Amino acid sequence: MFQSRTHTCGELRIEDAGKKVKIVGWMENVREVSANLAFVVVRDFYGTTQAVVQNEDMMSFVKGITRESTISIEGEVRERTSKNPNLPTGDIEVVPEKIEVLGRCRYNELPFQINHSREADEATRLKYRYLDLRNPEVKSNIVLRCNVVAALRKSMTEHGFLEITTPILTASSPEGARDYLVPARNHPGKFYALPQAPQQFKQLLMTSGFDRYFQIAPCFRDEDARADRSPGEFYQLDMEMAFANQEDVFAVLEDVLPPIFAKYGKYNVASEAPFKRISFSDSMEIYGSDKPDLRIDLVVRDATELLSDCGFEPFAGSTVKAVVVPDFTQTRKFIDQLCADVEVVSGNKAFWFRLDENFDLVGGISKFLTERKNAIIAALDLKPNCFVGLTSGKKLAAQKTAGVLRKMLGASVPGHMDAERYEFCWIVDFPMYEIGEESGELEFCHNPFSMPNGGLEILDKVEKGEADPLAITAYQYDLVCNGVELSSGAVRNHDPEIMIKAFELVGLGEDDVKAKFPAMYNAFCYGAPPHAGIAPGVDRMVMLLAGEDSIREIIPFPMNKTAQDLMMGAPSAVEPKQLRELHIVLDVKE
RNA sequence: GGCCCAGUAGUUCAGUUGGUUAGAACGCCAGCCUGUCACGCUGGAGGUCGACGGUUCGAGCCCGUUCUGGGUCGCCA
User: Fold this and answer.
1) Is 90 exceeded by the pLDDT of residue A295?
2) Burial label, A526 (beta-carbon count in 10 A; 0-12, 13-18, 19+)
3) How far is the CA of A402 from the C1' of B63 (A)?
4) Residue A345: closest CA among A357, A353, A337, A354
5) Residue A403 contacts by C-beta under 8 Å, 6 or more apart in sequence?
6) Which of A172, A212, A299, A531 has the greatest number of C-beta atoms within 10 Å?
7) Which pTM value belongs to this model?
């Protein structure tokens, strides 16, 4: 039987000298200094400890052990004659009396070197994720994730929220993303769906009288991945509050998140309550994005009236946006690269000019501007050595391109970004409706569950032609941190009458509401509380805190971009018998 | 589905205008080394240059197709 260790590989100190100990772990390295002197490095979850081998029998035994085998070492702790101040255990070493191999690593060569696994090819890392995770650097992100989740749970519970789990096998939802479907063996031809979010369940909990709900909820969406979006599955800190409005929800997260960000984040400064509130339309106008990075002090200015008729062809009849950077000393090469990068990311061109130290407009498109030089200087408030980046196009395209330009300038021109902090803001007053690009018809902008600002009254006005449906905003909000959309939430529409009216405006009716959301509609007909909620993405939160650029770095067993688990071999073919039981006939084209 | 980037030793990469036997570092193997800690020194093994086709006297390099991976747009109530 395996006898337990007395100490971990991270805890022995100079005070332990003289003690008989047993340590266990992975044999990370053997430094063979001579024929009868070698240093063996043992690594476990907690750290590394050095053992020193000084007799020839033990030397030859150690030489026969492959790296990354698990071993146990029993012996005496002693003070090192040459200490290593860079290691917590660097003052001591273990002199082994007995070394035992617990689990032999059968390979001399690993797919990658454990301590350099982050440099290895990503597909290889994912296939051998259990080895990748042996790397303390990789492991630390998972530990961080555990700590953050535990802190979120604790804080939410302290705020009076109950953690309630909701079904994983549920009904397919007609709106939103593509569902993951699960065939129902006992119901031929029918399917469960994995939840895209516990949205309807949490709203039902509100109608059942649970006042404050939360859940670290797994969510499943069959959509394509991104660097910050894991394919298939992800986790949300899902929460909902009864008899609550937008500000009530804001107050909870403004209380819960900053201490956790400050404690566990790579940067230990987080904005405090209240977070800045920015309307969707202001955010698009000032920052060129609905997820502004407020660490950047640059803003987007409107220059349509000033420049659209200046004679420069791309500006004619277009919206023109400007980003002004004072004290600009970057080279022409830098500017050309910047414009090229903006075009790659946004798909639209960026233009520029400068005001030099002699008060002359120079570079870029300046020759189109000389006639109205004074007006431009006054309107954009230009000082010598100002750089002006310009974008144009339809309003939304000009805004978004300017947003990309702003972000790149902020990140690359020194002095415009205080990067080492977490800067939160709320984006509020999202439009309720939009004209669908494909259909050309009025459609819900986000989801149909949100309460319109103005309630039944404003919807009635739209119906009578007295109000513009595109001007209606919803009590719908995003939480943004450092340019990352952490969360969407809303005050929900709990009134069946308003719900039906909201649907009628997009050409649907009561029957559609009942058909699409039967449980919620019926439940709301039995007396529902006004309620509101939000669901910050746990993965993205941890990614921000860890300072990682890829979401896969903070997920224990991530899938690759095409939603495959290379380690487990998922998705995989199944036995014909399984398919028969599920009443499934495959129709796969080669 | 569109676009961009990458694919050369176990790993990370270099490879000039198309020209002899495709290199380096780390890792691996062997030897040396009595205080290493990214130990050091010497030597060695290790390659379907992602695949297929084309151009050429000659292709890792040029052209075409394709596969794989990543990024991005679409998509993500």
Assistant:
1) yes
2) exposed
3) 39
4) A337
5) A284, A287, A288, A289, A292, A300
6) A531
7) 0.93
